[in-house]
Design a protein that fits this description.
The chain is α/β, with parallel strands linked by helices and 306 residues long. Helices cover 37% and strands 24% of the residues. The relative contact order is 0.13. The model has no long low-confidence stretch (mean pLDDT 91). The structure holds adenosine-5'-triphosphate (ATP) and magnesium ion (MG). It catalyses: a quaternary ammonium(out) + ATP + H2O = a quaternary ammonium(in) + ADP + phosphate + H(+). Keywords: ATP-binding, Nucleotide-binding, Transport.
């Protein structure tokens, strides 16, 4: 869907992004993380051509981004800026409606979509759609920024620390909504964050950057089980990923005497059940294997920080 081929961005003598290559697949939730100044925003802005490349290629759907008409490409790529930039003289509704209007959606369709999204992010539309940005808190403006990026249903969404100004509860809720949205309609999302817990929760894969280069790309599990440098290890620190039944499976034959659990049953729940049972059957649409006390301990012992 989006491919970086040896891309660099140089300012003066300093590379903000230093010859990076990676590919984001369609429908993937891809997280860019790394210390301040490592090049995350620059990487994101090069995708929709807010920043021109110094060298290399970025492909969008198999064509270099320079082959696309700028407007059309931007309609296909929703973008949540790190610094919220709402039009101050427009209401919330009109701020959100810009791209759907350019795509010539009917007014009814636009308003339906806006109301639905405002409600989704916890800003009831009756109350908020006719306000001006100056009548919103910073966190509320940030949520409008998220809604604006989603409004025209773009297949690709770039999000630069979209939840950084939110309290933990709103933040968790929006994370859940975003995951839900992505699983329902298969969006490709590139998401920048500073927060390793957020990265682990949201990312199918995570790309950890450092001084314009890529330190490691992989699943959250790869980072915990196989950090490939001291930098990666110290960056993830003591963060653990919660394990589920699916992570503890042993390939034992099905035994109907034992109870069934779903693959997403958390380990804490398995403990309780295993206090009384020798074995649990992991079943979703079919039998996946068994969980036993040793298999749970084995799974937990992986990735424990040394
Ligand atoms: N217009 C510019 N001119 C010169 N240097 C720049 C410019 N924009 C960014 N940089 C430099 O490029 C590097 C990467 O910046 P970038 O904004 O991509 O970092 P970031 O990873 O998004 O950081 P943060 O987490 O603080 O948002 C930084 O060292 C920054 O100072
Ligand atoms: Mg940034």
């Amino acid at each position: 869907m989006i491919k970086f081929d040896n891309v660099a961005k140089v300012y003066g003598h300093k590379a903000a992004v230093d010859h990076i290559s990676f590919e984001v697949k369609e429908g993937e939730f891809f997280v860019l993380i790394g210390p301040s100044g490592c090049g995350k925003t620059t990487t994101l802005k090069m995708i929709n051509r807010l920043i021109p490349l110094s060298s290399g290629y970025i492909y969008f759907k198999d064509q270099p981004i320079s082959h696309y008409k700028l407007d059309e490409m931007r309609w296909d790529i929703g973008y949540v800026l790190q610094q919220i930039a709402l039009f101050p003289h427009m209401t919330v509704r009109d701020n959100i409606a810009q791209v759907p209007m350019m795509k010539k959606w009917s007014t009814d369709r636009i308003d339906e979509q806006i109301n639905r999204l405002l409600d989704m992010v916890g800003l009831p539309h009756e109350q908020y759609r006719d306000r001006y940005p100056s009548e919103l808190s910073g966190g509320q403006q940030q949520r409008i920024g998220v809604v604006r990026a989603l409004a025209a249903d773009p297949p690709v969404i770039l999000m630069d620390e979209p939840f950084s100004a939110l309290d933990p509860i709103s933040r968790e809720k929006l994370q859940d909504d975003l995951l839900q949205l992505q699983s329902e309609i298969n969006k490709t999302i590139i998401f920048v964050t500073h927060d390793i817990n957020e990265a682990f929760k949201l990312g199918d894969r995570i790309c950890l950057m450092n001084q314009g280069r890529i330190e490691q790309i992989g699943t959250p599990r790869d980072f915990v089980d196989r950090p490939n440098s001291e930098f990666v290890r110290s960056f993830i620190g003591h963060t653990k990923i919660e394990r589920h039944a699916a992570d503890c499976i042993q390939p034992l034959p099905y035994d109907g005497r034992y109870p069934a659990v779903r693959p997403d049953t958390p380990v804490s729940e398995l403990y309780k059940l295993l206090a009384e049972q020798e074995q649990l059957n992991v079943i979703d649409t079919e039998y996946r294997g068994a969980v036993t006390r040793p298999s749970v301990f084995q799974a937990l012992s992986k990735g424990v920080a040394e």
